[in-house]
Amino acid sequence: MKTVSNEVAQKMERRAMITSMVGNLFMGLAGVYAGYLSKSQAILLDGLFSLIGFSAAYLGMRVARNAYRLPNKVRPFGYAADEALFVTFRSLTLLGLVLFAVAMAALNIIGYLKGGTPEALNFSPMITYFVVIGLTCAILWGFHHWSWVRTGKQSDVLKLESQAAAFDGLVTAAAAIGLLGIHLFRDGFLAPVAPIGDSIVVLVLCATVLIQYFKSFLSGLGELAGLTAQPQYLAATRRAIRQSVLQDGGEIVDLSVSKLGRSFTVVVYYNPRRSVSAGEV
Prior knowledge:
Elements: H1 6-38, H2 41-66, H3 81-113, H4 126-150, H5 156-184, H6 197-225, H7 231-248, E1 251-260, E2 263-271
Antiparallel strand pairs: 1-2
């Protein structure tokens, strides 16, 4: 697909972030309200994920705008690091929420094992919530993915928002399967765990998203630390310079590529196999 100009790409990123803000705010408020009505921690957690997504979309819109700014006296190396900072701290915030949810669910399970009686769930509002939120996540994922492709797959902000919408949908689907399954089989083989089924679903959801958020955190942290870029970027760089090397007749001794946001720093260690004058460099 043909990519668009920077000006058009910036407008598309802004539009995608505004759409994400509206969608996540709707899903967050719906999740908190449905969690209150149903007494479900899993649904409440789903809503809190979306509220964090709303805050992240607002910050992401500012990051995407700064990414096109030129270096200046305040930021002599430009604003490329903003995207890496955004990815790192967004992932860190989500990791904090996940760990908090794990702790609360574990305390509920421990309380039940000690003889406590968990609050009964109200399943009436759950089906409507899961259907509406599932469709919203699918629409947001499709829109962000399309915007990311149209902007040349260079915006880490759009890529992260696309992945977040997909994971929100998977989390919602997993919560639906778990909670409705417990409701259907509460008098059958799930009877022993039915009173703490909501807490078990929370633990499963947290385990599902923990690895992805941790990987995103390490990825952003790696960019800030100046680590070598991922193998696909190294391969793309080698392909880009291969023809020039063949024409010059030298050989590449080593190649270093680092990524920071949507900018790349490439260092090529090159042996020309001949004498080179200063004018040729």
